[in-house]
Amino acid sequence: MDGAGAPPALPPRFADWFAARGWTPRTHQLAMVEKGRAGRGALLIAPTGGGKTLAGFLPSLIELDGRPAGNEPPGVHTLYISPLKALAVDVERNLLAPIAQMGLKVKAESRTGDTGAARKQRQRVTPPDILLTTPEQLALFCAWEGARRYFEDLRCVIVDEIHAIWPTKRGDLLALDLARLHAFAPECRRVGLSATVDDPDQIRRWLSPGPREDIDLVRGAGGAAPLVDVLLSEDRVPWAGHTARHAMPEVYDAIRGARTALVFVNTRFQAEFAFQELWRLNEHNLPIALHHGSLAAEQRRRVEAAMARGELRAVVCTSTLDLGVDWGDVDLVIQLASPKGASRMVQRIGRANHRLDEASRALLVPANRFEMLECQAAREAIAENALDTEAERIGALDVLAQHIMGCACSEPFDLAALHDEVRSAGPYRDLAWEDFERVVDFVATGGYALRAYDRFARIVRGRDGLWRVRNAEMALRHRLNVGAIVSPGMLAVRIAGGRRASPGRKIGEVEEGYLEVLEVGDVFVFAGRAWRLMGVTGLDVLVRPAPGEEAKMPSWGGSKFALSTFLARRVRAMMSDAHHWEVLPGDVREWLELQRDRSTIAATDEMLLETFPRGHRHFLVCYPFEGRLAHTTLAMLLTRRLERLGVGPIGFVCNDYALAVWAMKPMDSLDFADLFAQDMLGDDLEAWLAESSMMKAAFKNCALIAGLIERRFPGQRKTGRQVIFSTDLIYDVLRRHQPDHLLLACARHDAAQSMIDVTRLGALLARIRGRIRHMALDHLSPFSVSVILEIGRQRSPGGTGEMVLAEAEEDLIAEAIA
Amino acid sequence: MSEALRRRPYAFAASPCGGLAMDLAGEGVVCRPSGGLWLAAHGVLVVADLHLEKGSSFAARGQMLPPYDTGETLRRLEAEVAALLPRVLVLLGDSFHDRGAEARLTGADRRRLLALASGRTLVWVAGNHDAAAPADLAGDTAAAVAFGGLVLVHEPRAGAPAGHVAGHLHPCARVAARAASVRRRCFVTDGLRMILPAFGAYAGGLNVRDPVFRPLMDAAPLAVVLGASRAHPIGWRSLRGD
Fold it and tell me: Which of residues 315-334 of A touch B (CB under 8 A)?
């Protein structure tokens, strides 16, 4: 900056535009303009509704407007990346308005998977000044021969909703492509836009193009603190369950009292259920709609459009509405069942009231007594502005494999130079040369110890020492498989027509597995109506309307989110402190007192473990509060140990708070310190994991991302199920013949992290060492009811196939005897 | 096949080896948990659809599947041969995944195939993937072979007479019990005819509920489903579509 005093905050054209609307530019918007002038990267943290997106674009608009006419560089000036296709399109619309109103000669266009081929082609030839797109589209751009020339004039990349992208594989892919862009256009600066997070420095490190801290932090004004209430229902809070059915009349009243409400739930089944219940109560005929990822796209768009026009009073939705598409005049967010994490709740609350000066209102509706504790803990955490934290991100190697292949498709590369470039991406900063080489070898020939495929290599090293893709067909195949989201196989839900139940009109799409818990003939609710499942043929789920019939409510999915470590700690603390119980309703307090009298309530740093007989069985119930995933893993491992101890474990069941194992023999006198010893994470874990279906699922994901398996061939589409089958075979063979293969390591890492939560389990075992509080009881305790009630509702995870076969065989024998 | 179809009482018994001994058109056979069919009276072991070198076939087109499938398939075949010491080993067609597969065999795998042929009769039944006889390997080639009342060919066909034993379709069963289900390779038989599961490590599977199977069996068939160490007889009612 020169010393002649600060330049005017905004050029006249921009200042006038603000003034004409009666607006004053916000401090953080001006700060972002300053950062842009100084050529600095920036991370803007501001609550929703703070004009965050405009703050991101203002510097670019000013710069573009100030360019001398007729001399513009031909390339893209600003690239905007959004985690959602819908958001990219939405922001395009919101950006076009100020551009038109100010009369700027700036062309802004979106490009997503849904953009037509003609427009895409034109965008390649004549790039817009501002291109709005997704991480997957950027990866495709970077795998294109013209990528370097296309992006060499780039001045700014804006990553929106960066808090939602960075700690994921999509984030890894984006970080690698940002590194690529930096190589093409070293002048380009990076801007991140984020909702409130606990540790902004983590995101700054992620976003920075080198180990230096190149990203300045800009904070928006905090806005009014949200008003969060927990519903203290008139009705008694249930002991177990996930539906919050008891509170529906009060939820309905809350909707009536609001202008527009968003009702968040954690699963699609819960969404369908809540929608049904609300309509059953809807004597005022309020326009209440439903929105979740399984509904047909047209139906979702209709709901979104009606919402934007202000025609709806409430939308029941899942995380499909978590991110920042603008939903108009929402003044109340209702969370049905626990949010499971404070940060997620803050995001969801942010969906209400896009005006900063007014407080957002939220209502948490616990579905059971433990959730009452959770919701209170979440409310207090939000009031203290204390949020969940994320672990530092280490980039996934399957994503790196995809990126390296993309680089080869774009232009020849030098191995050492590419290693340097990759290490300039936050998640890959510590990538060792050996690991990098290993990934390159995987990309070339599959990385097999048996060097059978050298002659088929996908990328080859030329005489000039540079690596390039072997031929155009390999490049084409790669481009068809780009992306880090492996979408599950989708089945179309169709109305069965005629006597032969042939497929008719499509009412939506469901993931494979969505209907796994249902049998032909069962009635279930989908898209807000009751249907009878007639059968599944090929890629179609055939249904017939079953109006008025009692629908089956699969209860396996209490929540797909695990209780966050942070919130779990607060729940344990609240529980062990009787003074804190005052915030809870009377029936929940009584329940805690009952537990204290009949069994005990453990101290914050202890874990309660109860043993008691029930029926002809002996039960062991413990309460780690570490989430269903970690509990399931723990239960699996405990069962193996109990088996060896000869107590004959028969089954187990888990929820977010507790796990129960039942056995033939009593377990009161076992050595629990030994039973929960940390060495269970050694051989037992490895042996179980290797055989588990979770590991196979993780392997399939990694194989698809890394390009070992193809998503689709030109002119041929496999269903997800066919892919599952063949990757299982490959997994088995690879595990036997090359157990140290790169992709097995990737799959193991993913399964340990996201599917079985080994990190969390390890921390739990360390935490409770010497702190297990055992109570030998005569009968079940009040706390244990919630988990005992889950028995018979859950599928046993990773259920052993051999048992299924043995049972089916017994059926046949029984049939023969009958 | 509809439930209305005539039910045939099947005669079967678990065999000590984990296999399932049963009567097939009057011949005693054992469905092995490996997927092989053992004709004890004749000393004949039959395996179908090895699809050797499927991995390298994909690799040549740029999909680098692990190159261990041939080794794995041969390892399992060697284990069966060592357990049963057959007089005759019948490879029931599609032993190679494609025409170029034989040429892509490694030296070691080639020697293992030769070893399997030594001291016994090895019969290569022609399949649709490998219609031509092996160019450079030991053994006899045939379009079909017969033992007792059984005729062994690659492709099943509608209206085949009793004793018809084939492969080609890679039958698989989805078995559901309570809330879980598994999908495994299986034999499928109506007591008079039989279709063998694929033996190859990378061979995919076709659900036995697929209409393709309908004209090939004349009663609600029995699936003999391959478990880890046992072959399980599973009734038609317990089988599910995919």
Answer: none
Q: Say whether residue B176 is in contact with chain A using an 8 A CB cutoff.
A: yes
Q: Among all chains, which residue has been given the structure tokens 């062994």? A: B152
Name the residue facing B181 among A732, A804, A809 (closest C-beta): A804
Tell me the C-alpha distance between A447 and B66, whole Å: 9
SS3 labels along A388-452 = CCCCCCCCCHHHHHHHHHHHHHHCCECHHHHHHHHHCCHHHCCCCHHHHHHHHHHHHHCCCCCCC
Cβ contacts of B11-17, under 8 Å, gap ≥ 24: B11/B191, B12/B222, B12/B233, B14/B230, B17/B83
**Phi/psi-derived region of residue A446, left when phi > 0, alpha when psi is between -120 and 50, beta in every other case:** left
Is the pLDDT reported for residue A226 higher than 60?
yes
Q: What percent of chain A has pLDDT over 70?
A: 86
pLDDT of residue B55: 94
pLDDT band, residue A501 (cuts 50/70/90): low
- Reduced to 3 states (helix: H, G, I; strand: E, B; else coil), residue A184 is helix
**What's the DSSP call for residue B214?**
G
Across-strand partners of B142?
B125
Distances (CA, A) of A423 to A201, A210, A332, A400, A557: 19, 8, 44, 11, 40
pLDDT band, residue A529 (cuts 50/70/90): confident
Three-state DSSP class for residue A570: helix
Give pLDDT, residue A305. Answer: 82
Least confident interval from A175-189, A255-269, A306-320, A554-568: A554-568
Residue in the block written with tokens 């950027």:
A138
Residues 508-527 of A with CB under 8 A from B: 516-517
- If one counts every other C-beta atom within 10 angstroms of the C-beta of residue A295, the result is 25
Closest listed residue to residue A443, CA positions, set A400, A413, A486: A400
* Cβ-Cβ contacts under 8 Å for A151 (sequence gap 6 or more): A75, A76, A79, A141, A181, A184, A185
Place of tokens 């969060």: A228
| B-proximal residues of A, 537-596, CB under 8 Å | 537
Pairing outcome for strands A659-663 and A649-654: antiparallel
**Phi, psi at B69, each rounded to 5°:** -70, -40
Q: What is the pTM of this model?
A: 0.83
ipTM of model: 0.90
Q: In this predicted model, what pLDDT tens digit does every residue of A556-595 receive, in sequence order?
A: 344 566 778 888 889 999 999 999 999 898 889 999 999 9
Residues B4-28 have pLDDT tens digits of: 344 556 778 888 888 999 999 999 9
- Give A294's DSSP letter: T
Please name the residue that has the structure tokens 């914050």.
A604
Q: Is the pLDDT of residue A178 over 80?
A: yes
At B114 the pLDDT is 94
Of A729, A738, A807, the CB nearest to B177: A807
Cβ neighbours for A113, distance < 8 A, ≥ 6 positions apart:
A85, A134, A136, A137
Smallest Cβ–Cβ distance between B66 and the set A535, A734, A806 belongs to: A734
State pLDDT tens for residues A610-629: 999 988 889 999 999 988 88
- What angle (nearest 5°) sits at the alpha carbon of residue A643, between those of residues A642 and A646? 90
Q: Give the nearest partner residue to A805 out of B172, B201, B225, using CB atoms.
A: B225
Residue pair A547/A539 in contact by the 8 Å Cβ criterion: no
In the block, tokens 């599910």 appear at: B240
Measuring CA to CA, which residue among B171, B160, B165 is closest to residue B210? B171
Select from A453, A470, A474, A541 the residue whose CB has the most chain B CBs within 10 Å, as the one to mutate to test that interface.
A453
Residues β-bridged to residue A790: none
| Cross-strand pairs, A620 | A611, A661
The answer to whether the beta carbons of residues A262 and A321 sit under 8 Å apart is: yes
